[in-house]
Amino acid sequence: MALSEEELARYARQISLPGWGEEGQSRVSEARVLLAGAGGLGCAAATYLAAAGVGELVICDADRVEPSNLNRQTLYRDADVGKEKAPVAARRLSEINPHVAAKPLVARIDDGAPELAAGCDVIVDCLDNLEGRFALNRIAIATGIPLVFAAVGGLTAYVSFLRPPETPCLECFLPHLKAPEAPPVPGFFAGTIGSIEAAEAVKHILGVGETLSGRLLVIDEAEPRFDVVRIDRNPACHTCSSLHG
Amino acid sequence: MIVYLKSGGALRERLRPDVDHYTRRLEVDGTPSLKEILDGLEIPLVFVAFAFVNGKFEHLDYRPADGETVTLQPPVAGG
Prior knowledge:
The structure holds 2 protein chains of 2 kinds. Chain A has one domain: 3-Layer(aba) Sandwich (Rossmann fold), CATH 3.40.50.720. In chain A, α4 packs parallel to α5 and α4 crosses α8. By secondary structure, chain A is an alpha/beta fold. By secondary structure, chain B is an alpha+beta fold. Chain B has a single domain, classed as Beta-grasp domain (Ubiquitin-like (UB roll), Roll), CATH 3.10.20.30. In chain B, 15% of the residues lie in helices and 29% in strands. Chain B has a 5-stranded mixed sheet. In chain B, a hairpin with a 2-residue loop joins β3 and β4. At the A-B interface, α4, β5, β6, β7 and β8 of A face loops of B.
């Protein structure tokens, strides 16, 4: 896909990155990404994916904007309280970058339907509950689409790039524990982690750098401490073991 | 043997660190698993999602070696 002069100007500061170039920008502009969730992680990830020029963003969220969202969900304004998140987010993303097709999908990922991810190059986990994440994990396995996993609570976060059977799936390493509901999440931290998710998605699309395949990024912002931890496939995993060679 | 448990977030207060803000030094008998160590400290397992040692993810059935530092991580699921 040839880029217009306007696009070349808009993306000049990323096209100049080694490994990106005009060819990479064309790949980004033709990519399709599913964002599961348009909350704290989703607003940040979607914003930077739109700014980067990802061609199509499918924004999936069934919730409505609440006042307590406004400290971190930066696509929403006071006047959006009560409105469905997905359409508002899609509209704001189109304002950020008119070259991006931002498509709202008012639906719950928990329904587990692989059709939600049809045609996507990568899925970005921006959910706020564990069971939804496991459903998204099953969708990723069923479709063979890589999944950028992230979760945040307080000043602790985890991020990984999952593509079984080359990597573990989510159930290989994450236990079914009950995490605190409505945990504290400062906006700057959700923004940080959502941005890292956007980076993982774009690195995969471009084929530059290394994703967090086979690794878990563990962040404790309070200390602060950043660790990259090796994670292995579980050969007995009941969710992805059928994929193992 | 001596084991160092390190943690951040909500786990830190339960761990009662005594080496620095995040680390607790423990003297244990035998080669207990992390699960057994946490039971001994009366830290409910629901507060620990996983651990890592020397850059490698470990589940709670892991048995630390003498002198190892084990970092414990809480479950988080927000977004």
